[in-house]
Amino acid sequence: MRYRLFGPTGLRVSELFLGAMRFRSVQQARPIVDRYAEAGGNMIDTADAYGASEDILGEILSGRRDRFVLASKYTLPRDKTDINATGNHRKNLRLALESSLRRLGTDYLDIYWVHYWERHTPIEETLRALDDAVRAGKILYAGISDAPAWLVARGNTLAEWRDWSGFAGLQVPYSLLQRDIERELLPMAEAFGMTVAAWAPLAHGKLTKPVETAGNDHERAVLTVVHEVATELDATPAQVALAWTRVHSRAVHPLAGASSPEQLADNLAAIELALPDDAVRRLDAATGFTLGFPHDFITPDLLDPDRIEGRSI
């Protein structure tokens, strides 16, 4: 396992992140965490909305919590009878964080993610509340998940101006079947030096299935090439799909949500899989993805002097 810095910080995180959303019991999850640790993995990601995941992790990490980079999230409803037990405002952040710390059996989180953007809380309020938690030592770094690029960029710019802790990481879906982040979110994250945690890198398991199970023509086209490349490289489809998420940007860390040690071992092998340039081109082509406007319009030769003459711009 190799390591990279988490965003613009000095925190070292492993190339593959372990997602704890599928943890259902201590008995099921402990061998997964142990296998991950044995491989050198150190970044475990959960959320207060993932059922008993925090409680399970708290028990499994007892006595070795500081060995891991532990991350959780808040925003989603914690109590459907309380109107304020949801959202990104200061009150929910404080109560959700205290609850997560208790369930995880720790007095601090390495990373605390805003789980998703909700339109009612000003980003200034969220960032200031996160900064207070950093200054109190209850979280070390902040991140944001599932938010538009303009909002994250505004937040980090405000944080820089006001000397607050900004977002060091971005968590977003990214796979061969969902490449939307390449339009705005990924370039934005790279510009701010943020780490990108790619959730659903296997498209919720779709990229590991036989071609004949594909739900539509687009999925079938992608799966066909995934299986072809896997056969050529003596790898599994999961390994090919995970390896692909890392080829276009060093900022990306696939977030693998394994449900067994065997599945995790298969995913871990993707870290050592080098995709040939031709394989990457074929995989990219199979997705049929285009950046769209303005990226496809602003081409490198748009301002070529030979093209400007006689053209209205």
TrEMBL record:
Keywords: Oxidoreductase. SUPFAM superfamilies: NAD(P)-linked oxidoreductase. InterPro entries: AKR, AKR_Detox_Biosynth, NAD(P)_OxRdtase_dom_sf, NADP_OxRdtase_dom. GO terms for cellular component: cytosol. Residues 16-286 form the NADP-dependent oxidoreductase domain. The keyword Cell wall biogenesis/degradation does not apply. GO terms for molecular function: oxidoreductase activity. This is Aryl-alcohol dehydrogenase-like predicted oxidoreductase. It comes from Kribbella steppae.
